[in-house]
User: Which sequence fits this backbone?
C-alpha cells in the first residue's frame, strides 16, 4: 500500500467514525494521558477530510470542542469532589502546584490559555475545582479555551485539505521518498510525545 492509498483508507475510517474520533481524540488529549495519542493531529485529520464534503466541518468542530470541554468539566468536578486525592495518587504534586500558582496569579486568563500548556491544562481545571473556583466562571472560560484550541487544530487540517490535490500529486511523484517523509513525521510525533511525558515521569520520583 502506497501513501496515497493509506490516505484514502484512513479517509474511509474517518467518514464512518469521524465525529466519534474527533470527540475521543480531544477528550483524551486534554487528560493526564494525552501523551498517548496525537490528539491534535487526529483533529487536524478531521478538518482535512471534511474539506471534501464527506464530513461536516461544523460536526468535526462541534465534537472536537465537546470532547475537550468535557475533560475540563470532568476535571473540575473531580477536583471539587475529591480534593487533592488524585494529585497525590498520581504523584502530580509538581504539576498541580504549578497549576495552582498559575490560577492564583492569572485567574480567568490562565483558564482561557491553559489549553496550550500540555502538562498543566488538566490540572488547572482540577485545581480550580479543588479550590472552589466559581463554576459558572469556569464553565464559561473553559468553553472558550476548548473552542479556541479545537477550532485551531481542525482549521489547520481544513486548510491543508484545500491543497489536497497538490499534496497527492507531490506524494505520487516522490514514490518511496513519500514513505520516508511519512516515517519522519511519525518519529517527530513520537519524540514530541516522549518529551511531554518525560517531565511527568520525573515528577513521580
Assistant:
Amino acid at each position: 500500500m502506497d501513501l496515497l492509498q493509506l490516505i484514502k483508507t484512513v479517509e474511509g475510517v474517518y467518514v464512518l467514525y469521524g465525529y466519534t474520533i474527533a470527540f475521543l481524540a480531544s477528550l483524551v488529549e486534554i487528560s493526564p494521558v494525552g501523551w498517548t495519542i496525537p490528539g491534535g493531529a487526529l483533529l487536524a485529520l478531521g478538518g482535512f477530510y471534511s474539506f471534501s464534503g464527506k464530513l461536516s466541518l461544523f460536526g468535526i468542530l462541534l465534537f472536537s470542542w465537546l470532547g475537550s470541554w468535557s475533560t475540563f468539566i470532568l476535571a473540575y468536578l473531580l477536583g471539587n469532589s475529591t480534593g487533592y486525592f488524585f494529585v497525590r495518587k498520581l504523584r502530580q504534586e509538581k504539576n498541580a502546584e504549578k497549576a495552582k500558582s498559575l490560577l492564583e496569579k492569572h485567574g480567568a486568563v490562565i483558564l482561557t490559555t491553559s489549553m496550550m500548556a500540555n502538562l498543566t491544562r488538566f490540572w488547572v481545571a482540577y485545581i480550580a475545582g479543588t479550590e472552589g473556583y466559581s463554576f459558572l466562571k469556569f464553565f464559561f472560560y473553559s468553553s472558550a479555551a476548548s473552542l479556541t484550541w479545537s477550532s485551531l487544530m481542525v482549521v489547520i487540517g481544513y486548510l491543508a485539505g484545500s491543497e489536497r490535490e497538490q499534496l497527492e500529486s507531490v506524494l505520487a511523484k516522490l514514490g518511496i521518498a513519500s514513505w520516508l517523509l511519512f516515517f519522519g513525521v511519525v518519529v517527530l510525533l513520537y519524540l514530541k510525545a516522549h518529551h511531554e511525558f518525560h517531565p511527568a515521569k520525573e515528577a513521580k520520583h
